[in-house]
Amino acid sequence: MAHAPDVNAKDYRAWYGLGQAYELLDMPMYAIEYYNQATALRFVDNVACYDLAKALDPTIVECGQR
Question: What is the mean pLDDT of residues 24-53?
Answer without folding.
Answer: 85
